[in-house]
Hints:
Layout: H1 14-30, H2 37-48, H3 53-63, H4 67-76, E1 88-93, H5 96-114, E2 127-132, E3 144-146, E4 149-151, H6 156-164
Parallel strand pairs: 1-2
Antiparallel strand pairs: 1-3, 3-4
The structure holds FE2/S2 (inorganic) cluster (FES).
FE2/S2 (inorganic) cluster (FES) binds at residues 93, 95-98, 134-138, 141, 143.
Amino acid sequence: MKKKMSxxxxxxxxxxxxxxxxxxxxxxxxRGREGCLIQVLHAAQKIYGHLPLELQKFIADELKIPLSxxxxxxxxxxxxxVTPRGEHTIRVCLGTACYVRGGKKLVEHLIKTLGVDIGGxxxxxxxxxxxxxxxxxxxxxxxxxxxxxxxxQMTPAKLNTLLAxx
Length: 166
Ligand code: FES
């Protein structure tokens, strides 16, 4: 019972309590195992949606490691995010082949259409917009990814149709 209360100082609301409780269960599974930080962070991001500083502090305290170690890992890997992410992630490839065949136009189009800059999330929480460096579809550039699916030979018009389906 006492242990379950350990996250309360980090939480803002009831919903947070539940998520921190789930994260604590994950930490309990890994506690004492060397090199478990990345797995714990992955699970925490999946449960909480992102990794705000308070959550990183909680993880550092529970794993009894310095906060700087946690923040270092979170900032090093691009798949960790400290701000809330959208329901879907759009990645426009700006590798060489995609860049020269219109990737930059797709980026400009998305900035206008979504109303967010690179790295941003739309106000409705639907899309997070990022850049990728080659997603393995150079022959049919320009390519983008939405979540885990690659879309090739994209144009702004095709993009509009695609986004309307989400
Ligand atoms: S450069 Fe875009 S898929 Fe390779």
